[in-house]
Amino acid sequence: MKNTRARKTFGDSAERVAALHLEQNGYRILARNVRTRYGEIDLIAEDADGLAFVEVKARRGRSHGAPEEAITPRKQLKLVQLAEAFIAENEMFSDKAWRIDVVAIELDKSGKLIRLDVIKNAVQM
Question: Does residue 125 fall inside a structural domain?
């Protein structure tokens, strides 16, 4: 998927699917595509356990591995930086417990959903 527009459309669609799934499972979506000086946070949500900074990873097929395998140690560090920057810029969240979750979405070649997993506390801080 080299086309940048197609990639963005695919990513936006995956984020919508992830947000809907999270809402159906007790999360409240607070924000989408939040920019910080370190980059963008896909979703910010809240559930009974606190604030969740959610990274959405979606793949068609396994030629590049499972979606969650894209959360490399470098990406984990960046996700922590993003979350910390958001909290620093939004003091009303400074006293809340927070974590980083990953939503892994796999589609078959035709675009049919074959797996959606929510990985809570995907990044150990």
Answer: no
